[in-house]
Model the fold of this input.
Amino acid sequence: MSASDAWLNGMISGARVLVENTIAGVKRCRIAKDVFRNTKPGFSDLAMEVACALHNLRMDCRHPLPEFSLGQFLV
Done:
């Protein structure tokens, strides 16, 4: 495998990890993970939209990591 192939493979696998983590985050809602038994038209799409919206809200409202400096620990 050439260096360019290895670089491209790394880029693709990095994108794949992000997509798989997002799908796992959406599937935290049971309605997206379990069998959806509602037979009314459009409700399965609506349920997935709600699960995606909840995932986006959860990602937007995360607490940021505290910032620190190495100088604090070298006293």
